[in-house]
Design brief:
By secondary structure, the chain is of the alpha+beta class. The chain is built from 34 helices and 14 strands. Helix 8 crosses helix 11 and helix 29 crosses helix 30. InterPro entries: TPR-like_helical_dom_sf (IPR011990).
């Protein structure tokens, strides 16, 4: 309704309330409505919206209980809390409402209300004990006496899939085929409902959408967990159930269970810092008892055979061998399965990466990284070459992968550096110096890649790369390029002075290092664009710490000379500096013949797409600078100068927040595009949150700059602000 209200001037609406018309007649009238000639509407290009409202009272269907829980607020009046956490826990007022609803259901539906298991579990606060109480003594006795019966086995399958893949189900037809094992002929064969009678309170049989085929599942995932616990207590392990499920249900019907099996055996849950090593089911089987590696291998081998075209099962096996198995031949087996996975999907860089990880892990296992004495140098050389070749293959595959599928896979580039870091301080370096020296260019090119990659982006809005990522990249470069009496840090800092991403690094470290090395950047040749760009950025970086630097006007003059040369092959970094230094400032006098910022915006977007988009896709582009309240270079505020609270408000805060060090920029939204309005100029900017651009109108926002161009943060519609102020004023008066 909020959206319709926002577009009330652009739409014409009609309502159909409690219509008892024939369907064909109603559809005919709807068509006439859309084709209705109306000159006034045609000129305004109004769109027709039809609202269907059904208010007829229906009799309660006691055999199909349903609950819809909605807690909604009108957008304009939402208050952003300081913190939001989603928990399987009800608030006190929610508990009270659920308790009242439960009493109501008990009075209306008597005994049947006890079978509303999902509601009762939620009302009870998601307690495991509530789910476990639903498993009666009669059910337990049936499991003990008839472990091999089709009913018990079918319950175990449902418990397994509903526990590890909540929301999954089995087809009723497939379940009926399964119970035929005990009833070879149709004569006297009971129905599925009869067979599952001991567990009927736990099972739901339903239709999904418009499908005629009905589905079977347990009433709640916590009930599935409780059932699985009962099975394991009676010596029916997760492995027993999973192997039976694969052999009895999946075999011959692989296409029906592809997603369920992948979720159970392959999908790795998110941990605190990164993904777990294996799927939750595999991890649980490993923890059920010691030495369960053989069971996990058995399951994955069987699944790999059933899903013979899927590369992820042999990949999981390869990972399991090199990570968990203790036997000496584990790397041979791991390599075998990794190569099988590659054969199944040779274009997938993530599949290829596993082979490189195996060889890298093998090198570490030998103990080279600790500087231990290496007696078999030739073997180490062979493994190192295999690892490097594997990671180079990952790089090639990553370069060729579609940009629409996933983010760029950097593991080949990073894996290469890790391998070199391992082999550098070893006898291999002395005995095969030519091989090591031949890697010098490869090491530097990969370091260069990560320097801008990590400066311009991160994994997501709130997720940085792990610490070891930066450390390994820098450590590898220092080991390779430090010479003579030079220290590691001096070598690294001299390298950083030669790149845009490297100079940005000094804002987060020691600015004195930049001051010491500033001489290397002084007096760049006016026709050397690369040197001039680095010189200007170095001055901007120094200004952020209050250090002496060249005046903004002088830097503008240097940059303007380059702009007038109209060079074709420029970098996005050049246009970023144009935007930073020539952004219209109301407090500054007009600049004679300034660069066209709209043209700059378009060129920067185009060059970003050519140079960086492939590698930074699906990553969060870091705001490098924000437009501040000062003059000259003081109008630029680096992200590191804002506290964490301010950054969170800029990127995720309510539209009514104010950041004291930053001014709001006036703008306008037209045709879902945002423009900054400065000195009668309309400069395109990219919305940080596209969903905040919901309609045309006057807006204000905070202005930031990424490597892709200017970005509008915390967009606020000015009419919303006026309404917000009126509401606050009225609430204060009352």
């Amino acid at each position: 309704m909020q959206v319709l209200w926002d577009f009330r001037k652009d739409l014409r609406c009609a309502r159909v309330i409690n219509s008892d018309l024939d369907t064909k007649e109603l559809s005919k009238q709807v068509l006439n409505l859309f084709m209705l000639p109306n000159e006034q509407h045609a000129k305004q290009d109004r769109k027709t919206v039809l609202l269907l409202q059904l208010k007829l009272k229906r009799a309660d269907q006691t055999d199909h209980p349903a609950f819809i829980i909605i807690n909604a607020y009108r957008k304009n009046f939402v208050r952003v809390p300081s913190d939001v956490k989603l928990k399987m826990e009800l608030l006190p007022d929610e508990k009270e409402m659920f308790a009242q609803k439960k009493l109501q259901q008990e009075s209306k539906r008597m005994e049947m209300s006890q079978k509303f298991h999902a509601f009762n579990i939620m009302q009870g606060g998601f307690q495991k004990e509530d789910a476990e109480k639903l498993i009666t003594e009669e059910m337990v006795n049936h499991i003990e006496k008839d472990t091999k019966s089709s009913s018990t086995r079918l319950l175990s399958f449902l418990a397994l899939i509903n526990s590890y893949v909540p929301g999954s189900h089995l087809s009723k037809l497939v379940c009926e085929d399964f119970i035929k094992e005990e009833w070879p002929t149709d004569e006297g064969k009971p129905s599925l409902e009869t067979i599952m009678k001991p567990f009927e309170d736990l099972i739901v049989i339903f239709s999904e959408g418009e499908q005629e085929d009905r589905c079977v599942r347990l009433a709640h995932p916590m009930i599935a967990d409780a059932c699985l616990k009962r099975f394991t207590e009676h010596n029916v392990t997760r492995f027993d159930i999973a192997i039976d499920f694969l052999n009895s249900m999946v075999n011959g019907n692989e296409s029906n269970y592809e997603q369920i099996c992948k979720s159970m055996f392959i999908t790795r849950p998110e941990g605190l810092m990164e993904k777990e090593k294996f799927s939750k089911l595999i991890l649980d089987i490993m923890h059920e008892s010691e030495n369960n590696s053989e069971q996990c291998i058995c399951l994955l081998e069987l699944a790999s055979g059933l899903f013979s075209a899927d590369p992820f099962y042999p990949q999981a096996l390869a990972r399991f061998y090199y990570i968990e198995v203790k036997e000496e031949n584990k790397y041979v087996e791991a390599e075998h399965w990794a190569k099988m996975a590659i054969e199944r999907d040779p274009q997938n860089s993530h599949i290829r990466d596993t082979l490189g990880q195996i060889h890298k892990n093998h090198l570490r296992k030998i103990g080279i990284e600790a500087g231990k004495t290496c007696t078999d140098v030739e073997n180490v050389l062979a493994i190192a070459k295999s690892a490097i070749d594997a990671f180079k293959d990952v790089e090639k595959a990553a370069e060729n992968e579609s940009e629409n599928d996933t983010g760029f896979n950097n593991r080949g580039l990073f894996g290469f550096l890790q391998v070199y870091k391992i082999i550098h301080p070893t006898p291999l370096e002395q005995q095969h110096s030519d091989f090591i020296s031949g890697l010098r260019g490869d090491v530097e090119s990969r370091y260069d890649f990560f320097e801008w990659y990590l400066a311009f982006s991160r994994l997501s809005l709130n997720t940085e790369e792990p610490d070891y990522f930066h450390e390994d990249v820098e450590e590898c470069y220092k080991k390779y390029f430090t010479q003579g009496e030079q220290t590691d840090e001096t070598t690294l800092n001299e390298k950083k002075m030669k790149s845009f991403g490297g100079l940005l690094h000094f804002l987060k470290s020691d600015i004195n290092v930049l001051k010491e090395h500033q001489r290397a950047l002084k007096h760049p040749r006016s026709d050397n664009e690369t040197q001039t760009v680095l010189y200007i950025l170095a001055n901007i970086v120094l200004s952020q710490s209050g250090e002496q630097c060249e005046q903004a006007e002088d830097l503008q003059a240097r940059l303007q000379k380059l702009w007038l040369r109209e060079i074709q092959d420029r970098s996005p970094e050049f246009y970023l500096l144009i935007l930073l230094l020539f952004w219209p400032d109301e407090a500054q006098p007009g600049i004679t013949n300034p660069p066209n910022l709209e043209k700059c915006f378009k060129k920067m977007h185009h060059l970003y797409k050519e140079k960086y988009q492939k590698y930074l896709r699906r990553r969060y582009l870091v705001p490098l600078f924000f437009f501040g309240k000062g003059k000259g270079l003081e109008s630029l505020v680096h992200t590191s100068k804002l506290d964490q609270i301010a950054l969170e408000l800029l990127t995720e805060g309510d539209e009514h927040v104010e950041i004291k060090d930053l001014p709001r920029i006036n703008g306008q939204v037209r045709k879902h595009k945002v423009f900054a309005i400065r000195r009668e100029k309309q400069i395109p900017v990219t919305p940080h949150n596209p969903s905040s651009v919901c309609k045309p109108g006057q807006v204000s926002f905070y202005l930031g700059f990424t490597i892709r161009g200017p970005v509008a943060y915390n967009i606020r519609y000015e009419e919303n602000r006026k309404l917000h102020n009126i509401v606050l004023h009225n609430s204060e008066d009352s």
